[in-house]
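Cross-check.
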Amino acid sequence: METLINQLPANLAELKATGWTSKSVKQEIHDNLLCKLQQKEKFFDGIIGYDDTVIPEICIALLSKHDILMLGEKGQAKSRLMRSLVNFLDPHIPYIAGSELHDDPLKPITDLGKSIIEEKGDATEIAWWPREQRYVERLAPGSKFADLIGEIDPAKLASGTSLKAEESLHFGLIPRMNRGIFAMNEIPELDELVQVGLFNILEERDVQIRGYPIRFDLDIMILFSANPATYNRSGKVIPQLKDRIGSMIRTHYPRERMMGIAIMEQEANLDLAGDIPVRIPLFMKEICEQISIEARKSDYVDSQSGVSARFSIANYRTMIASARKRAAVLGEPYAVPRISDLSHIHGSAVGKLELDMMSSHQMTEQQVLEAIQIAAIDNVFDEYATEFGLEEIGEIFGKGVRIEVGDMLASSEYADRLQRVPPAWEKAFEINPSEDPAIRASCVEFVLAGMYALEKISRSSRHGSITYEF
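Predicted model, tokenized:
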């Protein structure tokens, strides 16, 4: 990048010779997006499940040259979408060297930029601003007016600068991002004074600090993110600010389980090879994602808060870690996750579920997590196994049979333990016909857990060890 920039025009005369013309940041994004659409380029890499919903709406908002609000529950890729917009910027743009606000060489907005052009003319030195530096984001809580918009600089006043002069100001993050993209996460948490300060920036594109109107024709795209519950019903966002935001884009959780699994695997970014390879049955991936789906539907979980994709990702990592630990300790050549590995996800789930405290069903987080797991197993088991043969298995358990399995039980031991319940061993072949002992162990636990979810047998668990009985 540095070598490429060094080859670009170094002064205003050279810049003019190239035929370069000024363009607003929104026009720049508009033109580059149209080009990508015409050339059928893929954009928003890493965003799964939004091709027919969110992404078309974002494209329309960008072509409308709007400031944008990303509205959605936690874990719906709002921040990633905002960060992706930097890819619609030019690789680099010229600005007057030494200009604090990255003045356009052909349309300077600051007194400093104008004076440099007036003094040096075509000899004005040109610097280049790469696209990666033209995006910045800030979290609303704790953000002050001086941080975002600016403040009078006491040091400059002490040096004799006039209080009414532009040079007496210390500019905040938003003016400094002139000709770039500024993103504000969790806008309902933004101080009301700062919200008021954004009015003119959004509508008039000028800056007012301490009552001194500094008439800058700011060139900036502003993005916001918020949770629907706090944005629409908390009353924290001033109506006039809402009115000035051009487009609101509503995000959502994956509409299909397989999309959720694709996100989970992509974001977990685990190497399943290595010294101890991991082979994950599809039903274990489905259960891991279905746990998040059930949590989003649960009466015990605050639906307004949502359940982030990070919940699935953390649980998926924990499940694989437990399986790898078992393989390492027992000397097995590879790891295959089982239902008993999910007994450890409490650690990765804590803090990611916000319980509905207004619910009439007062349950602990552990009890809620247990209920959600059972519902997920029930849902997935129904897709893999038929009812045929389950009654026979239940009758055998009814005769006093007890089967203990667990996260630290060797895969080779499952065949011996299931000799007392042959139909359960056979039922596992319905899930997966593999003769591999580790796969078979996982399938057996799935059958037993499915029967428990259907209330055909009971179970007790302690430290990763699970006992099934009637």
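The mean pLDDT is 89. The first strand starts at residue 68 and ends at 71. Passed to J.P. for a second look.
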